[in-house]
## 1
Amino acid sequence: MNTSKQIVTPKEFLFAVEEDDKLPLDCGRTLRNVTLKYETYGQLDKDKRNAILILHALSGDAHVCGYHSPSDDKPGWWNEMVGPGKPIDTNKYFVICSNVIGGCSGSTGPRSINPETGKPYNLDFPVLTIADMVRAQQRLIEYLEIPELLAVVGGSMGGMQALQWSISYPEMVHSVAAIATTAQLSPQSIAFDWIGRSAIQYDHEFVNGNYDDEFPPEHGLSIARMLAHVTYLSDESMAKKFGRGLQNSNSYTYKFDRDFAVESYLRYQGQRFVERFDANSYLYITKAMDYFDLSALGNGSLTQAFAGARANYLVVSFTSDWLFTTKQSEEIVRALLNNSLEVSFCEIESSYGHDAFLLEIETLGRIVSDFLRNQLMEWRKDECK
Amino acid sequence: MNTSKQIVTPKEFLFAVEEDDKLPLDCGRTLRNVTLKYETYGQLDKDKRNAILILHALSGDAHVCGYHSPSDDKPGWWNEMVGPGKPIDTNKYFVICSNVIGGCSGSTGPRSINPETGKPYNLDFPVLTIADMVRAQQRLIEYLEIPELLAVVGGSMGGMQALQWSISYPEMVHSVAAIATTAQLSPQSIAFDWIGRSAIQYDHEFVNGNYDDEFPPEHGLSIARMLAHVTYLSDESMAKKFGRGLQNSNSYTYKFDRDFAVESYLRYQGQRFVERFDANSYLYITKAMDYFDLSALGNGSLTQAFAGARANYLVVSFTSDWLFTTKQSEEIVRALLNNSLEVSFCEIESSYGHDAFLLEIETLGRIVSDFLRNQLMEWRKDECK
């Protein structure tokens, strides 16, 4: 047993319990009895200026780093990035990682019990937006009595939430690190999400979302995951990793099972995913991403959308990311600069595609760590003036 | 009724009828009673030097141009490119368009009757290669008593067949126009094909390929088609065509049906496709494309693969084609030049993605037309010497 492991205990925040305290949603409906799963690391300073909120991507969860027990051998999803002595140093910062509502990792989502009916919501669960996810997280930060976060940090869908935070709650966000993200999905990304959701909805076991826990729509969900997975890689990284290598032999099988290593890899990824992710949640979360469009908040102008924002920003993209491209990051940067906001922008050279935000930790870590240190230093300096 | 319509009658060529005449295949098996659907346009000159073989892409067929009857209002798939006075001028050239075996457009394929059992082959049909398709076409050209084709022309999978023709039957191919094609699929393309095939094979109605004609695996096939369709477009063309436009209203539906125009478009494309294409054929043809790897014919060297070729080549790529990229075309060009073969290479500026070979007819037509005229002129000049 490795005693040097950083052990963390997941927490749950239950809110919107009272009738007059329900969580309002963009669709016009409300949610009651909302649970948000979260984890915290490190200590909040007396001045409460060292709190960092980390937000996760589509299939992530509140477990950003460390282990859940001494025997746990699977660390959190950004363990190289966050922890004692890591780029987001939990010896220095109080780190909160919050799950999203709509998911399947401990927070209220479509498979939760609807308090009105006593049965799972399934497709009766309201269709959420990224702003709804952030609205729930704001309740958590309020509950933790943190008036202003040093930084809100996220990659991919986490970056969308981080940007949304700075617009929804400008007074609570000192800075934002938005990594491998976008202010709106391209039609190509919407198309891929649509195909993935269609595969789930077409699955014979889907039963309009009312599937049995024992018989989830595994095939549809694995199709959706395999497709999404290809968009997380790059043509270059796939060429390096698999090429046209064959799985089991030096010759073609002349059958319809797997021939190529890349086919085997994808099938494995699809199969693993269905063990840990819920099909209904997949529908809800991808739909929230498709709906996300910051420029709509500014009546079509992204610049206008950030008019009320006051945070300092770090925007990071990766050269081979074709899901959320450098061009999309640059649009964010332009809108921020148009509002005379402080922005650092960095495009990191990488062949890993969208997944680079999880893999290029050496470069990304240095950039994020510097950004956070400067934010904290300047903020405390301002205070002394 | 428009009497100026060019009317064409599809033809069928039945071969490999005798036991000792069976069509050998790369997988080691053979095919008997093979039908190849084809169409011809124009007249073969006395010197038999004006014959052009056109080969189609995945979902194409033998009907390259013209109409099947005076009341027919749907012309062939390359009608702007081929016909009287068109870039591939049927007043001048004798044009043959041959279907592929393995498909579902009139030639022998997985839904054909297996002469050994009297029942449809379905997944007992042998897994084919592009070289097998070409092997069948060679029988057709032999039957038509054409000793050498002026040109073999094809886009996408048709380009693969054209390249293969020049390697399999060098003495029968005077020139090749290989458009928007590749000498081998990238792992990313193999991945997309795998996901599409998986969607078909996972479909409840698939029944291991033994589906009823009345109940084909429509859902799986439409998923495969929608996915493939995205790879035929470009991010840019999708942005131009759809953007983030909504389908029916100015606001989100907060439901899981179509919100975005691109979703509606894709669903429509998927639905139309299942009406005209067979799921088993989709498996066979995509597998043939995945298996296609000319460099394997040269023991890993594409240059070596073309060592026996003697044709003149035109290679055309399109800037926004991310399925079969300019880089992949350049690899072909390099291999041809290494063999001191005559090559013209052209990258056409286009935002249409892979579909550009069907859409950029003005530019492509001029290039192909010039190439063919030069080939014919030089060939006849050689003869006069």
## 2
Amino acid sequence: MPDGLTYRAAGVDLEAARRAKQAIRALVDATRDQQTLSEMGSFAGLYAVPDGFRQPVLVSSADGVGTKVRVAFLADRHDTIGRDLVNHCVNDILVQGARPLFFLDYLASGKLHEHVVADVVRGVAYGCKDNGCVLLGGETAEMPDSYPAGEYDLAGFIVGIAERNRILSGERIRAGHVLVALASDGLHTNGYSLARRILFDSLELAPSDPFPGAQRTVADVLLDPHRSYLAALWPLVEQGRVRGLAHITGGGLEGNLPRVLPAGLGAWIERSSWEIPPVFRVIADAGKVSDAEMFRVFNMGIGMVAILAIEDVDAVLAALRAAGETAWRVGEVVAGDGVELR
Amino acid sequence: MPDGLTYRAAGVDLEAARRAKQAIRALVDATRDQQTLSEMGSFAGLYAVPDGFRQPVLVSSADGVGTKVRVAFLADRHDTIGRDLVNHCVNDILVQGARPLFFLDYLASGKLHEHVVADVVRGVAYGCKDNGCVLLGGETAEMPDSYPAGEYDLAGFIVGIAERNRILSGERIRAGHVLVALASDGLHTNGYSLARRILFDSLELAPSDPFPGAQRTVADVLLDPHRSYLAALWPLVEQGRVRGLAHITGGGLEGNLPRVLPAGLGAWIERSSWEIPPVFRVIADAGKVSDAEMFRVFNMGIGMVAILAIEDVDAVLAALRAAGETAWRVGEVVAGDGVELR
């Protein structure tokens, strides 16, 4: 042991953490709005509850990006993963009928590399800005021994708001309502442990290799950011035209649709109504993954399902397409339970 | 490669995750209050903004427990770390003048061990219950390859509320105000990378060994939960008797006190006003850590500092002691900047 141990020698550099935070200050500040009352660096973030709600309800969710971070490590590209995280969280509160207010991130690494921290938080800040959401705070933790060199984990936490009587609770969903699918952008943030196993281990692809059958690299395809459906869906939610929303994450269509259907209602999904995107077909073929397993693990091309009364379908489809979404009728709500893929 | 890959073979067991969540359901439900509108398992948590505020401000913070988790791994004791996390977050919003509303946790591991998940979340739930805070949601992520067997990371997010004109902003702090220290319970959640290096590597102690000079084991001493000061301080904050609060975390007294002092004000701390607890003395001696470094890294026996007008000191000290705190006059606010230990 040297003369005297310091925290820095033990692996924690408080000064580097401070510098990394300064580097991202302008980005964080750019997400502020009129309700934001605190400065970066205070013990906690302060956010005034917006006026104009009769019975304001806070809608909150915590999430990570799973092992998609490991693709970011392999590709050494760290500025997209933050956007994944924010968009995932935004979608999770959108399905309850809420719009985002603010976001906090937790970034933990073994050794804090200032440029990686800056890239990750840059992605978070851009994601927040895109969704009209304030990056109110966060924690950057340096944890020697807990993460290997160059690795980190990232979690996020969102708070949104909704008028109590406008919450999407499922109570306005009836048998005969129509399911409309909104296309995903690739894998979003689910199924990466299986996808990595197949693409990197079985097919022995490198991140810079062309993705089989595609014009893009493996890294490009796998790092496609999780899509936010806020801009396209929020006007329709506000108009009361959306009866329910299901964010298709871990568990797939069969795992997530039932979470928003009231007791006594199930759904069928028409498999022939869309073409499974190539990324999923490549994974299924190379890994000999059964169809059932693919649908349990991946979104299979559908990132969000909207539940609509039949009289709203045409107008909603037109509005979604005008907003840049790929959207189509994919199935129907029926008496019963569970989700039938047919 | 076997016949067909599954998500489970790739290391992710969605069923085990579901069982782990069921095991903790009753604990989570026990933290619910009248404002809680959502059930466990929904996409997001719903929490009605409490009535009775003229200008309600949300106060939010994200945190982890640092490498204190590694002591939990070594000791194979997982039910205290959640309490650390909640109490840390509660203190961080308390210093802004807020009381907690709800909490969300993020627990990531390589392989989900149901009993470990249950123990960790049990600690979180008890911590929430103790602080009158709802455990509104959370994410339990299984990330093969990202965490070694038996290891995990834990982060938490808190949302509290304060009346806008009652926020502790520092503007009521003046030169001549008195600093009152509240004793910590050991290391709380800071300095564990240095403490582990010295105790486990240099002194080669095992978690079950007696802590040098103490009647308790190394694990017992190091896993002492981070103390929550909410119960003792909240009545005094509500009465307007507290001008400012500083939570003594990473960076120590010198790093944290200035965060709550307005520009143009500094402070002195009287070193002889308290005895440094044995745990810090053992670490300093064994690691030959300089006094200055010890004070930058550890709380050194002070978990919270309250800033009071001189006429409030006696009553506040009496109230804190009646609430079970060890509290004493430790210094004074002065013109200038920085914190002088003298």
